[in-house]
């Protein structure tokens, strides 16, 4: 019971009359009676036998066969008859109802109850609060009444503008006493939502079982009908009268849903007849993902549900023994940047793109889901394999609601560019961390191209208006950002003329490489030392291809540092992407004295890949060259840990970008290292770190995956355990981090 309920002064009502003591009315009475919310509950019904039974079962205190005399001194009247009887009941009791009485009902359709009130009272009385519990069972009658039928279920109240506030508060409180979650919505909205989510499925279940029962071999069918039949048809055992009433009561909305379904089932029949696998898989994959995430879908949001909704704490290191050494051969998960791009480009290509090694982390899954929401058929991921059935540059369709991309800046910024050229409006939303991150850096240049984008003062949510014609621009990026560059390149595919982006320092070039792999020309040239110009022309097309996503060097970095700082370590990381725009971590660690060897170099799908062997070596502090900053932008949190374990001072400058990542990574790391007794001073654009001993302590990762994993690595050298709070977002980029860390000899466990 929640606080507000336990604070209520019970009983809330002296005398309540429940008209209709079956499953729904009986369960409500029972829950209210047990909780002491009502002094006396009188049941009214049609047969004495079932009312006597209701008294025996402790569902009601007294009973009456005469509704009129029963309501005469009632404080509360609950109408729980089949919904089509509501008008008859109201007609019967209208003259006997005391003015003080609050009335409520439980009918599955609300429009019809409003109509009934209009006929009887000329409108809905102010003290009549219309309600509908979203709970039930295929069983019926008072014997099926359950005290906890409503616990953790929703109850929808549909108050009208002149509903009495006290009456509404009372009905609210009564439902809360039963353990239900109470929400409010309009009458019409309620009837449409329920038609689709409850009434149509019941109608289909009745119809399917009837079809099967009419067939000659029905004995056989029912004998062998296993799980699927039982799962799909359980609700066909529901009370026929009640459902007859509900369908008629909500006829208009049910027919609308039924017509949509009928059109779709005819299409599916056609697809099957034609052996149209693409159409069939389209239906099945969309349905599966919608079903898997149906709660969000009902709320008209994209279907992504964080895998780790609950906060997680890691306990890393050991209070009794030295962890490590770090040894073995492992393959860390697929590259996050490449995974995002493989879905985006596959979706707007023509034909089927097959992806291997896809990162099944929350960020890249958010991108995948966004394209499903825009009508793209995507199979998988299954062990890193994904098939994307591209719809061509102009084949995306408007999603049913805002696209929710969670924690993923890459999804939001790249999608902003890609969506700027579509014909429909889209809203992009993210979690709390993403909602604080700058989006003006993409919205402003995209606006220069002719896009219409609304932001919340430069922050998400972003609304991107469709139907604009984009023009190529010449844009010099003020910050070296691959996300901004990629966003403009993607918009450039839809623009008239050439889009030219100048980057002040080299940033990851996966978008350019992959577009070339899809047969779309993107050119790049160095215009002065470190300054590059990238250009793309609109109006081409992408042809589907195969993509092999290498292991993510950003995830590998945690283990590179882990092995470097732990005596006796010898670790090989397989098939790691070593794109020259990403190897800053290798260069910096090597300069610090790390023992890193790259073997088995090869090019896979346009990206260089190698196995990386790291052995323990004492590290020394360095001044990190500024030309490495963009090349190691995501690896600084763990490089700071390496610096804390090195001899001497390490200085980082020119990295103010770190302040606008998933957290302010300069501040978060300086605070955490100081908590562990390390001399780490944050500066506006970097950090100064003195190597030394690392103590034990509790760190807040602030929900930033890379901060969390970096402190887990620090525990290899700490004198005691490090407790790391807010680690759930590790799943955004590295879902099996704890498992792999444990496999190579680290001590990291997740607290329940
Ligand atoms: C990314 C680019 C980088 C990086 C991010 C992924 C990408 O961001 O930090 O994790 O996939 O393009 P910026 O380009 O904004 O530096």
Could you explain how this protein is built, in words?
The protein has about 750 residues and is of the alpha/beta class. The chain has 3 domains: about 5-185, 3-Layer(aba) Sandwich (Rossmann fold); about 315-335 and about 550-750, UDP-n-acetylglucosamine1-carboxyvinyl-transferase, Chain; about 335-550, UDP-n-acetylglucosamine1-carboxyvinyl-transferase, Chain. The chain is about 40% helix and about 20% strand. The protein contains 27 helices and 32 strands. The strands form 8 sheets. It has a 6-stranded parallel beta sheet. Strands 30-31-10-32 form a 4-stranded mixed beta sheet. The protein has a 4-stranded mixed beta sheet with strand order 11-24-26-25. Helix 26 (about 705-715) links the parallel strand 30 and strand 31 (about 720-725). Helix 15 (about 335-350) runs parallel beside helix 21 and helix 24 (about 635-645) packs parallel to helix 25 (about 665-675). The longest helix is centred in the first third of the chain and has 28 residues, at about 185-215. Mean pLDDT is about 95; it is low at about 295-310. The structure holds shikimate-3-phosphate.
């Amino acid at each position: 019971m929640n606080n507000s309920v336990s604070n209520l002064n019970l009983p809330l009502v002296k005398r309540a009359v429940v008209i209709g003591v079956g499953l729904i009315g009986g369960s409500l009475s029972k829950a209210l009676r047990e909780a002491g919310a009502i002094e006396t509950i009188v049941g009214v019904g049609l047969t004495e036998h079932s009312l006597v039974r209701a008294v025996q079962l402790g569902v009601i205190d007294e009973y009456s066969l005469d509704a009129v005399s029963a309501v005469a001194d009632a404080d509360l009247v609950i109408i729980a008859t089949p919904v089509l009887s509501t008008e008859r009941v109201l007609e019967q009791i209208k003259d006997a109802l005391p003015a003080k009485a609050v009335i409520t009902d439980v009918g599955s359709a609300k429009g019809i109850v409003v109509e009934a009130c209009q006929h009887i009272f000329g409108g809905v009385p102010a003290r009549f609060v219309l309600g509908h519990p979203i709970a039930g069972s295929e069983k019926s009658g008072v014997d099926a009444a359950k005290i906890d039928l409503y616990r953790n279920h929703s109850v929808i109240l549909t108050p009208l503008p002149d509903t009495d506030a006290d009456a509404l508060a009372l009905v609210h409180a009564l439902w809360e006493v039963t353990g239900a979650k109470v929400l409010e919505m309009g009458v019409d909205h309620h009837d449409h939502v329920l038609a689709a989510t409850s009434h149509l499925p019941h109608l289909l279940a009745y119809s399917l079982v009837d079809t099967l029962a009419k067939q000659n071999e029905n004995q056989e069918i029912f004998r062998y009908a296993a799980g699927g039949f039982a799962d799909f048809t359980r609700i066909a055992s529901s009370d026929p009268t009640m459902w007859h009433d509900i369908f008629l009561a909500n006829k208009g909305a049910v027919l609308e849903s039924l017509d949509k379904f009928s059109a779709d089932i005819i299409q599916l029949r056609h697809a099957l007849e034609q052996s149209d696998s693409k159409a069939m898989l389209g239906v099945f994959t969309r349905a599966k993902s919608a079903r898997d995430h149906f709660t969000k879908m009902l709320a008209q949001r994209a279907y992504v549900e964080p895998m780790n909704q609950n906060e997680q704490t890691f306990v890393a290191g050991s209070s009794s023994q030295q962890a490590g050494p770090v040894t073995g051969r492992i393959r860390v998960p697929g590259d996050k940047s490449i995974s995002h791009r493989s879905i985006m480009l596959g979706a707007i290509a023509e034909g089927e793109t097959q992806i291997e090694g896809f990162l099944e982390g929350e960020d890249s899954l958010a991108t995948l889901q966004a394209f499903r929401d825009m009508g793209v058929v995507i199979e998988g991921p299954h062990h890193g394999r994904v098939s994307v059935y591209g719809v061509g540059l102009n084949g995306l369709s408007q999603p049913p609601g805002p696209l929710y991309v969670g924690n993923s800046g890459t999804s939001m910024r790249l999608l902003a560019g890609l969506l700027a050229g579509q014909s429909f409006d889209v809203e992009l939303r993210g979690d709390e961390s993403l909602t604080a991150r700058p989006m003006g850096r993409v919205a402003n240049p995209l606006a220069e191209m002719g896009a219409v984008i609304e932001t919340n003062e430069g922050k998400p949510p972003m609304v991107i208006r469709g139907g604009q014609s984009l023009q190529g621009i010449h844009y010099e990026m003020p910050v070296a950002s691959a996300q901004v560059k990629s966003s403009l390149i993607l918009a450039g595919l839809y623009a008239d003329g050439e889009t030219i982006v100048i980057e002040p320092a080299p940033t990851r070039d996966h978008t350019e490489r992959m577009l070339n792999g899809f047969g779309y020309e993107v050119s790049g040239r160095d215009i002065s030392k470190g300054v590059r110009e990238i250009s793309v022309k609109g109006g081409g097309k992408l042809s589907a291809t195969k993509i092999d996503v290498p292991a993510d060097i950003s995830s590998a970095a945690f283990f590179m540092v882990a092995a470097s700082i732990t005596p006796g370590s010898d670790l090989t990381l397989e098939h790691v992407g070593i794109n020259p725009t990403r190897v800053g971590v290798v260069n910096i660690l090597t300069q610090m004295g790390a023992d890193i060897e790259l073997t088995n170099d090869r090019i896979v799908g346009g990206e260089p890949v190698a196995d990386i062997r790291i052995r323990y070596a004492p590290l020394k502090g360095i001044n990190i060259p500024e030309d490495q900053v963009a090349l190691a932008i995501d690896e600084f949190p763990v490089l700071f840990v390496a610096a804390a374990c090195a001899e001497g001072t390490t200085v980082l400058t020119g990295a103010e970008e770190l302040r606008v990542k998933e957290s302010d990574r300069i501040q978060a790391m300086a605070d955490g290292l100081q908590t562990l007794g390390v001399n780490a001073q944050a500066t506006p654009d970097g950090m100064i770190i003195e190597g030394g001993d690392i103590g034990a302590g509790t760190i807040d990762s602030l929900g930033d995956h890379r901060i969390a994993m970096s402190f887990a690595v620090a525990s290899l050298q700490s004198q005691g355990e490090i407790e790391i709070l807010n680690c759930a977002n590790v799943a955004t980029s590295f879902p099996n981090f704890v498992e792999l860390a444990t496999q190579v000899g680290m001590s990291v466990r997740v607290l329940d």
